[in-house]
Design brief:
Layout (H helix, E strand, L loop, with lengths): L2 H16 L4 H10 L2 E7 L4 E6 L4 E5 L13 H13 L6 H10 L2 E7 L4 E6 L4 E5 L7 H8 L3
Helix pairs in contact: 1-2, 2-5, 3-4
Length: 148
């Protein structure tokens, strides 16, 4: 992967963890740079950013306390997603990471073309969330879909 795209992925990773970028901003930047999605792996403490041709960038995440629980609690994961979407005053991505791991989430895969996030547990149990088109920059989405 070229250095510019790797830098964009790193900026998005850092922005999520330090709170300087929201999920919609991150998605917009990644789509504009040509990414198809990314995967968060709490077991490896890493994120992988994917291009449509299979090229990818693997980046280490900042360490968050706690480990992934053995049992996947889909209801708790969904409640944490709603907390993140509400952008509550006590929300931070670091807190989300710690709490979602405690709910048994081993990671998640974000697909931009399908506007879908699949959260999974250690035993491959899943919870799927769709994110609305409004969650991303209309311009970035239109560019990605070839509408502009």
């Amino acid at each position: 992967m070229d250095a510019e795209r790797t830098d964009i992925a790193k900026m998005c990773l850092d922005g999520a963890h330090d709170g300087s970028l929201s999920f919609p901003e991150i998605i917009g930047k990644l789509i504009s740079a040509g990414f198809d999605g990314y995967a968060v792996d709490y077991l490896r403490n890493s994120q992988t950013y994917y291009l449509h041709d299979g090229d990818c960038a693997d980046l280490d995440m900042p360490h968050h306390s706690g480990s992934v629980a053995a049992v996947f609690d889909a209801a708790a994961v969904q409640a944490l997603i709603r907390w993140a979407q509400a952008n509550a005053p006590d929300y931070s991505y670091a807190a989300f990471c710690e709490r979602v791991k405690a709910a048994g989430c081993a990671g998640y895969l974000v697909s931009f073309p399908d506007r879908r996030v699949v959260y999974y547990g250690r035993t491959a149990e899943t919870h799927v969330e769709m994110f609305p088109l409004s969650a991303v920059s209309t311009h970035a989405t239109d560019l990605r879909l070839g509408l502009r």
